[in-house]
């Protein structure tokens, strides 16, 4: 049995082959071995409010009260958010917050724990 590489996005060891590409069942990232060795995909570095580099799966804390658009709810300062996922866009953190559900946050309003 050949050893497949870990997922370059979430570093999961449970990758599998699907035709000519590799797939991660945990984060649904797909890549080819040739593309993996040719260029460093995802060179964008996302940092928190203090300048610490954020990675998928990190735990962060909200540093400012954040109003939830369309509701009267507020995510309070000090709210701990576990297992974040980094995405492209203005709101670059995808997460689930207890009591609020799925939400997207800006990295400038969180700090790494």
- β-strand percent reads 25-35%
Radius of gyration based on Cα positions: 17 Å
Assigned CATH class of the largest domain: Mainly Beta
Structural class: mainly beta
Major sheet, described briefly? 3 strands, antiparallel
Number of domains: 2
CATH topology title of the largest domain: SH3 type barrels
Features:
3-stranded antiparallel beta sheet; 1 helix; YjdM; SH3 type barrels; YjdM_C; N-terminal domain of TfIIb; 28% strand; mainly beta; single chain; Probable phosphonoacetate hydrolase; 113 residues
What is this structure, in a nutshell?
The chain has one helix at 33-38, and strands at residues 16-18, 21-23, 30-31, 60-62, 66-67, 74-75, 80-81, 85-86, 93-97, 101-105, 110-112. With 113 residues, it is mainly β.
Describe the fold and architecture.
The protein has 113 residues and is mainly β. The protein has two domains: 1-35, Single Sheet (N-terminal domain of TfIIb), CATH 2.20.25; 57-110, SH3 type barrels. It is 5% helix and 28% strand. It has one helix at 33-38; strands at residues 16-18, 21-23, 30-31, 60-62, 66-67, 74-75, 80-81, 85-86, 93-97, 101-105, 110-112. It has a three-stranded antiparallel beta sheet with strand order 1-2-3. A three-stranded antiparallel beta sheet has the order 7-4-11, with no helix packed on it. The longest helix is centred in the N-terminal third of the chain and has 6 residues, at 33-38. Keywords: Hydrolase. Residues 46-113 form the Protein YjdM C-terminal domain.
